[in-house]
């Protein structure tokens, strides 16, 4: 897989104009009326840049990681360094919007570099991009216009600080809009939890636990066609518990049923549930229930 360490080499590959700054590029249709067209297709590639784009795709397949883009118009797309990108020649672009590419070294030593770690949307699958309302579009566009003006100016000692400040503001607004999107997705969130539990039911009933162990959150997320981070964030927002906590609660609930079988030892119960080490099962059970598996069995054993 081809990897581009510099912004210039990445833009050259795309067939886009060289950047005004070696570690920053801004393409904005506001001034020119259109965005430059990238190359028609690409096999999987990676680079060392953050990308923040607002583009509209009419049709075709554009892959980010292992998922395909949601082609709903008006999507703000945030891509982190070293994420896999791929698209084919069926993609049709509407050349409106903006695209900002920032090499990760441009942000080193700044407060924004730390802030980026808090923004989960950079690790989301692209089919979970942020869909902006017309009012939100205008707010984002005004910030991008300020970045573009500073980008086009002659660089001086204040340029980097000003641009980073504007980027920070843009991402804070994006974070606000993502929070809004989560709040507006209550039905989707509930459905996601239902599907999450259904996947656990299927796996647990398949008899694979003793042999293959507890399923990973990544594996469950793949089954649901969402990213691991998005799954956890959505469940946390709606239920107050992460995907890992929901998995643990499911395990404990199953354990309670098995513990009431007096013919199984505590270790056998742990192995049946996919735990490689029985002491870990006992610690988790006590943490969640306040009593040990043995104490639970004694308290609720059948008379």
UniProtKB/TrEMBL annotation:
Keyword annotations: DNA-binding, Transcription, Transcription regulation
The keyword Nucleotide-binding is assigned to this record: no
SMART domains per the UniProt record, alphabetical: HTH_ARAC (SM00342)
UniProt GO MF annotations: DNA-binding transcription factor activity; sequence-specific DNA binding
InterPro entries: Homeodomain-like_sf, HTH_AraC, Tscrpt_reg_AraC-type_HTH
Domain of life per record: Bacteria
Domain HTH araC/xylS-type residues, every copy: 216-299
This protein's name: Transcriptional regulator
Organism name: Croceibacter atlanticus (strain ATCC BAA-628 / JCM 21780 / CIP 108009 / IAM 15332 / KCTC 12090 / HTCC2559)
């Amino acid at each position: 897989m081809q990897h581009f360490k510099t912004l210039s080499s990445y833009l050259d590959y795309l067939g886009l104009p060289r950047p005004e700054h070696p570690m920053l590029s801004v393409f904005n249709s506001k001034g020119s009326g259109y965005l430059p067209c990238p190359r028609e297709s690409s096999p999987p590639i990676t680079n060392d840049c953050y990308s923040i784009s607002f583009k509209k795709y009419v049709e075709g397949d554009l892959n980010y990681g292992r998922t395909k883009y949601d082609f709903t118009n008006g999507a703000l797309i945030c891509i982190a360094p070293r994420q896999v990108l791929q698209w084919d020649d069926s993609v049709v672009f509407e050349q409106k919007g903006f695209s900002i590419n920032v090499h990760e070294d441009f942000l080193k030593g700044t407060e924004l570099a730390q802030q980026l770690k808090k923004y989960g949307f950079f690790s989301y699958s692209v089919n979970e991009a942020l869909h902006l309302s017309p009012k939100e579009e205008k707010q984002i566009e005004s910030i991008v216009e300020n970045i573009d003006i500073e980008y086009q100016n002659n660089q001086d000692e204040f340029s980097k600080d000003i641009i980073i400040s504007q980027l920070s503001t843009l991402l804070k607004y994006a974070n606000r809009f993502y929070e809004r999107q989560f709040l507006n997705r209550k039905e989707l969130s509930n459905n996601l939890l239902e599907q999450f539990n259904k996947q656990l039911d299927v796996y647990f009933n398949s008899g694979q636990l003793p042999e293959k162990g507890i399923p990973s959150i990544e594996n469950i997320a793949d089954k649901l066609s969402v990213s691991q981070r998005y799954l956890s964030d959505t469940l946390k927002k709606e239920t107050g518990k992460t995907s890992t906590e929901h998995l643990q609660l499911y395990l404990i609930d199953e354990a309670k049923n098995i513990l009431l079988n007096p013919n199984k030892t505590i270790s056998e119960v742990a192995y049946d549930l996919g735990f490689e080490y029985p002491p870990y099962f006992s610690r988790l059970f006590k943490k969640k229930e306040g009593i040990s598996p043995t104490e639970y069995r004694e308290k609720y054993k059948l008379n």
